């Protein structure tokens, strides 16, 4: 068999990977050794990229969904000439502080499009990128936005449920610029894939409406032809590449150990002999490196032509394109919320919490066409479709994605959209189902992506559907997540303030938590200041004397705290109500402010229709709490609040008990 | 068309459901009205059940995976004569305290096999039940265990990723006694399924190796024939039943509103006219009721014969069968752990935490053949296969299920196993991936099922794989879950004590959390008492005087606290170390014990390589904490512990800082 002229380039990936993994004493050789030819075919002939401009907005996106095979990506970035991924970085693979970490970590300026590792997330992110591309293409036209999304994918990503969620919806939406390159090596960490799967995976894609090509993954020409075919298809493409895991290392290739068994110098030596690679460790011959470097340069002209086309856009259109790609909000956007906020304190605004959020979002959608809303088959009860129309196979201009009952995909899609840029992703479902999305939410937080998670039906207040649908621990579990703002507004005024904050928060995700039931106004007058911006504030100071009691509450329970305060004050007990819509922002305030709000020398009672877990941070172990003792129960909301003793009377009793005890 | 003789029986379901839903003012009519004929076919001709003995061990299991259609199940239980589901209960549908809750809630004695509602869980539970049946069948033979598992399923369950995980693995394992009845009504909450799916779902099952039959779901005879065919198949069966959602109510049938739009008296009346049902609300004519009641009686003889066969078993075999079905542990089981515990304090026991757990589990497996271990493609790094062999399509005697990279299914499978009974389900993966399992874990906790979740790689101690694989918030999020014991042992002695507790804990799930890295003994001598049983205890009391400082730690950080204590004591600061392997058990102790352990008048410092969230319960807001500030980083474990300043020196410094401050 004649060797393909690019074969040495693939071997360069192979040996850089082996050398780095031997040096690191651990790593996953399976992917870079198995997919070296696949990656070479993609980068040499097809990929639209510019290593000198890693964040070129119209670049093709590449996701390494099998993120444990990170050396594949680092090799590609180094070989094609991304500035920050130097040979020194490659040598420092898996060391503390290296860009070449165990798993790729989101850093678009380095060439890393998304953090991957937890399986299935990456292909769902790629799906989200393809959705964002299609939407932006519809907005700005082929001249400005027209690129493809590729994902390297292993068996694990396709076993995970989120993988099927993606396959199903991508096929349905006919996302034809999305291409998966499947490393069909028939080995997972446990050994042969036949231990746990026997279906024809390619057929599963065909059933979902994908264009599928099956090739020898070590045949560069065959992969390249398949990539051509993918570019010509009107459906998303799956290129099933039959490969040998760990190819090139005699001891482990095609074996379970090919996945991630420790490699030694002897293995590197044996591979050099087998593949006739005479070069020293980490030595890529100049001619090979030069060829690799030429691939990125291939796109220089394209990039320049694209820049010229952007320059040539009408000024307003160009400004809009640049604005959304930079993630900037339109100037004056907050004005659209002003009339709403001005009347938010009026009693007739006592709608269901989620409907308040829906009304605000409808206003925002009018001035921010970059907002895309995904919802998991709860359009009617969450009401966030507003004036949007659906994003479909035939209409890419729609900003509302009917995700079906696929919460996990929805969250990971939002991450892909946010990583792509140019759109602001919202993800809407019931709070009880946030657990389905949680692995994706963790990735948003880890990457610091500005995804807006919107949750409805936030407590036992949902009523008769019962404990499966009643979150009691979920506020706590979300608050436990680093780099996630969790906001639970008490009424329409707080809701609009929180949305204002959420839209401006760009360093990480936000969870916006809303009641199903009506939220009567607790803020009784219009104030220009965004009081929620400090995370917590004194809603009502004690009136009948120096503050003895501080009631702390969030969301629907703020009204209840206010009612309790009225009873306590009437009894001559000076009581303040503190609203804490966002703990994370409150904790960022200075000590003096926090102490003043919390009233540390007073009796404190927390009120939230949820578990106490986490509240001791504000209450101390001896503070009082009125909330849930465990899971909920089926029944109407008012009955349940009484049953679980979450009432103004209970708050009053708890405050009195502590006042008598005198321990605070 | 001649009406099938059982058609009035199906209409009895339909009208009971309509009447109950009208009365409740809310509910989901789509399922009971669409699946009335399907259910009638199943119960009339095929199901092996005995309403007089709801928990008959060899009954067929029925799961309503589309749990929002709960009225279907309540009708079936009432009509066939389950004692506790009376007509009064049916009338009280969705009221507080009713057995007929919004969603079915686990109560086998009532006839409710499992709690359902969150979509996809139910069919995965059914899968677990079928696995348990197959395993018990292999253990005890066809005469003793030989029943089928049926699940009603809607579109949502099949859109959820967990649905595909189940389809894939059930097909692979050829679980031929598992049958799904799919309500193919082409409508979801959002409207037509074509909004979000266009694949041929039946074909997806065929690709996965299922036996698929497509029938008219309103044709009782066709469904019955399909059930016959399923019973004859050597593969799991999916009966795709084309149905009309909300069938019988002219205003909503076949429409989006058929799913759960509010129904009124007028609708009930219109349905009565359409279907020529002259009977009053909640009135089931005696002849129809009598026919329904006869179905359960059909199995009386079978049940008695089965009882006779059990009676006729050799005494030892019968005792063993009854023991495992009752969920009792074998007498003297703890003795197998004794030699391990006696030597657990010896320094050579300083293995990796997860390997310690593996060694204990290998001992337990020797005396408890009812233990079944599921693992999500991490056999080697978690090492819990021990001496077990694999449960496969050809060998049902294996107690180790290679779940593939399907964590969510794995957790829900464990729930199904536990709900089935006769097996003890373990579910093994990395702690970072517990989020994938979390929706199933929540169901374990809600149902109070004794599933053992085993987690490895519990902190930054896993090293170079980086933050995607490093849990920092997950201990907190698990501790936030009601009715879940979370145990994080510090060394081999604590590990064996915690496993002892976990095996005895039957009222809910347990999360067993283990380090990857070595856990040197912190318990330096053998003690017969299970000290972990109180959840927390003084490991080392202060020595150089009255206790001034209390260091509280869990897991791998207990050793670190001990090192800090040595430094503090050497400096004359009287310091105790408290180990808190299980917060939930500790919180159940009496106040005096807790106060004595926590040393409330001392300076307290918590130490855990995780976030502080939740710790203020023990530390107060002013206590000290040495742990993680946020997500982790890639790098070797020792480097990371230093980088994040989780060291004995940091603990000492924190204690000194607080001592100087004097605020505690």
Give the tags.
homodimer, Rossmann fold, 664 residues, 12% strand, 42% helix, alpha/beta
Can you offer a commentary on this structure?
Two copies of one chain form a homodimer. Chain A has 664 residues and is α/β, with parallel strands linked by helices. The first copy, chain A, folds into three domains: 10-303, Rossmann fold (3-Layer(aba) Sandwich); 333-513, Rossmann fold, CATH 3.40.50; 534-661, Rossmann fold (3-Layer(aba) Sandwich). Chain A contains 28 helices and 18 strands. In chain A, the strands form four sheets. Chain A has a six-stranded parallel sheet with strand order 9-8-10-11-13-12, sandwiched between helices. In chain A, helix 18 links the parallel strand 8 (371-375) and strand 9 (400-402). In chain A, helix 1 (7-24) packs across helix 4, helix 1 (7-24) runs antiparallel to helix 12 and helix 23 (557-570) crosses helix 28 (648-661). Chain A is elongated. Chains A and B meet through helix 7, helix 8, helix 9, helix 18 and helix 19 of A and helix 7, helix 8, helix 9, helix 18 and helix 19 of B.
CATH topology of the largest domain in chain A: Rossmann fold
**Which architecture of the largest domain in chain A per CATH?**
3-Layer(aba) Sandwich
How do the strands line up in the largest sheet of chain A? 9-8-10-11-13-12
Tally of domains of chain A: 3
Helix/strand class of chain A:
alpha/beta
How many separate helices of chain A? 28
Report the mean per-residue pLDDT of chain A as an integer.
Answer: 97
């Amino acid at each position: 068999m004649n060797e393909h002229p690019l074969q040495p380039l693939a071997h360069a990936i192979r040996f850089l990977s082996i050398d780095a993994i031997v040096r690191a004493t651990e790593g996953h050789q399976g992917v870079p050794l198995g997919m070296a030819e696949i990656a070479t075919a993609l980068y040499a002939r097809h990929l639209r990229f510019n290593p000198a401009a890693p964040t070129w907005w119209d670049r093709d996106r590449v996701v390494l969904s099998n993120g444990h095979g990170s050396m594949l990506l680092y090799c590609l970035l180094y070989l094609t000439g991304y500035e920050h991924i130097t040979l020194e970085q490659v040598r420092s693979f898996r060391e503390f502080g290296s860009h070449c970490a165990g798993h790729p970590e989101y850093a678009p300026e380095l060439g890393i499009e998304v953090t991957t590792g937890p399986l299935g997330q990456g292909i769902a992110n790629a799906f989200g990128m393809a959705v964002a591309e299609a939407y932006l293409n519809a907005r700005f036209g082929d001249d400005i936005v027209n690129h493809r999304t590729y994902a390297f994918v292993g068996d694990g990503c396709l076993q995970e449920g989120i993988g099927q969620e993606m396959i199903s919806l991508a096929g349905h939406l006919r996302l034809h610029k999305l291409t998966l390159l499947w490393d069909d090596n028939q080995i997972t960490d446990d050994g042969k894939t036949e231990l746990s799967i026997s279906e024809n995976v390619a057929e599963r894609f065909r059933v979902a409406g994908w264009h599928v090509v099956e090739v020898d993954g070590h045949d560069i020409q065959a992969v390249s032809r398949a990539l051509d075919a993918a570019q010509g298809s009107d459906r998303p493409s799956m290129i099933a590449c039959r490969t040998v895991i760990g190819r090139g290392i005699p001891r482990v290739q095609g074996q379970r150990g090919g996945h991630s068994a420790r490699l030694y110098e002897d293995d590197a030596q044996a591979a050099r002999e087998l593949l006739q690679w005479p070069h020293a460790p980490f030595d890529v011959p100049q001619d090979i490196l030069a060829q690799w470097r030429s691939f990125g340069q291939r796109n220089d002209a394209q990039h320049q032509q694209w820049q010229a086309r952007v320059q040539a856009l009408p000024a307003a259109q160009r400004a809009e394109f640049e604005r959304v790609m930079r993630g900037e909000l339109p100037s004056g956007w907050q004005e659209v919320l002003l009339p709403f906020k001005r009347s938010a304190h009026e009693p007739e605004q006592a709608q269901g919490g989620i409907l308040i959020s829906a009304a605000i979002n409808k206003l925002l959608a009018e001035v921010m066409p970059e907002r895309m809303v995904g919802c998991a088959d709860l359009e009617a009860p969450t009401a966030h479709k507003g004036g949007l129309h659906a994003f479909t196979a035939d209409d890419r201009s729609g900003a509302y994605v009917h995700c079906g009952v696929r919460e996990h995909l929805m969250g990971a899609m939002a991450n892909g959209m946010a990583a792509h840029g140019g759109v602001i992703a919202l993800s809407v479902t019931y709070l009880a189902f946030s657990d389905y999305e949680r692995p994706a939410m963790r990735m948003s937080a880890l990457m610091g992506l500005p995804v807006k998670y919107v949750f409805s039906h936030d407590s036992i207040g949902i009523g008769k559907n019962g404990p499966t649908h009643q979150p009691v621990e979920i506020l706590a579990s979300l608050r436990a997540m680093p780099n996630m703002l969790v906001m639970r507004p008490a009424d329409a005024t707080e809701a609009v303030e929180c949305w204002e904050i959420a839209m401006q928060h760009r360093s990480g995700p936000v969870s916006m938590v809303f009641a199903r039931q009506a939220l009567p106004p607790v803020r009784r007058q219009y104030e220009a200041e965004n009081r929620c911006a400090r995370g917590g504030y004194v809603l009502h100071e004690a009136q009948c004397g120096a503050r003895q009691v501080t009631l702390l509450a969030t969301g629907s329970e703020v009204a209840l705290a206010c009612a309790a305060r009225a009873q306590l004050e009437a009894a001559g007990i000076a009581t303040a109500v503190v609203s804490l819509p966002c703990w994370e922002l409150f904790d960022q305030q200075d000590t003096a402010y926090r102490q003043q709000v919390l009233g540390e020398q007073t009796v404190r009672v927390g009120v939230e229709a949820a578990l106490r877990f986490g509240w001791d941070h504000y209450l101390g172990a001896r503070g009082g709490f009125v909330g849930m003792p465990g899971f909920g129960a089926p029944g109407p909301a008012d009955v349940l609040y009484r049953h679980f003793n979450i009432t103004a009377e209970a708050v009053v009793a708890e405050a009195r008990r502590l006042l008598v005890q005198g321990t605070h």
